[in-house]
From TrEMBL:
Protein source organism: Punica granatum (Pomegranate)
BP-aspect Gene Ontology terms: defense response
Domain NB-ARC: 47-209
A single GO molecular function term of this UniProt record: ADP binding
The name this protein goes by in its record: NB-ARC domain-containing protein
Amino acid sequence: MTEQQLIKDIVKVVSGKLKRPSLRAAHHPVGLHYLIERINPLVGIGEDDVRMIGIYGDKEVGKSTLAKALFNHHSHKFEGCSFLEHVKATAGLYGLVKVQETLLRETLGDAYDDSMRLGNSSIGDSVIARRLRFKKVLVVIDDVNALEQLRELAGGKDWFGSGSRIIITTQDRDLLQRYRDVEAEHMYEMERLNLSESRQLLCWNAFKSPVPPQTFAAHVEGMLEVIGEGHPGRLIRTASNLRGKSPEEWDSTIEKLSQAEDGSEGRDKLILNHTVDVLKQLHKAIFLVIACFNGRDKGEVVDIFGHVTESSFNRAIKKLTNRSLISTRRNRIWVNDSLREPSKEMIRAESCTQFQWMRRLDDLVEGSPDEVLQSIKEQARTMCDGFFGDSDDGDSDDGDSDDEEENEDNNEH
């Protein structure tokens, strides 16, 4: 190899690594460094075997956040990388073939050909195995709920080159046990935030400090007792609602949340209702439309709010993301996992006139013929123009100051 060719190869490798985006793991990464140290021996970076690692646990305990942190920490050590988020929702909307194409596009980089369209998932299997067999890759398969998803995206260790690592996140430990290539010693049960870490996360989001002001110390303890420790999304949403609020407003919120139905679902529903109720009308409408179009292209939501300025729309997306209501990546928008059913219930229960059209949109958006869906979108767009077309932000400020915070990817804490 000539010196000139060697330089070209080095430049190609370095530029490829620089192109890899850093994923936003958490705005306030409380406890994340400890978790990375705990799981790194299981991941075994640097060893030559092909290894599949399963991270399992309940909704919103930080599985995706940990996977993103691992991806950011180690991606530069691989020849190709792919983070396949929300696989359950994405496969349901677009089919596994689209997820397979994303895997190939991201791991192959410049070697990916746009003409490389997969006719079906069986073809995708053979193409992935053929193209990645000798390539050292890091792949994260996030939020899987079916064995078929694993078989079509990571069919076997022989699909990938020496040293490859495949990280899987799921709520279902049994699924990992049934998938023969995830060995028992490479399964990791997601550890919840402890009481001290939960307190820090609550305080960071409410006071922008790891400890509360003295006048709020008792209120923080009371809130933790009501909402529980170890649920990052729940902590973030509750704290964001109370940022800048008085002790009396904390007391009122604690009282309301103490009346939640037994179990985490009832508490999540009450927190969601409170979080959305204090939003501006425009931001509330955007959130409810996202709930209808969960996992779809951002453009579909933008189209419905055609007369809303781009800056107002982006400000709404940032606020909803900062409050751990939604997550965005690859120009797609998701309602966070534990909020999907409560948000649907909210749409069905909504009595305000300007939100009535969403009931029909929610009923028809899944599995509807394109022409029917397009008709509903046009009706929704017309109604939104009437309610929000002349307003930049929908109504008066809600008193939150999180718009200056930068937040691109925020899933679980």
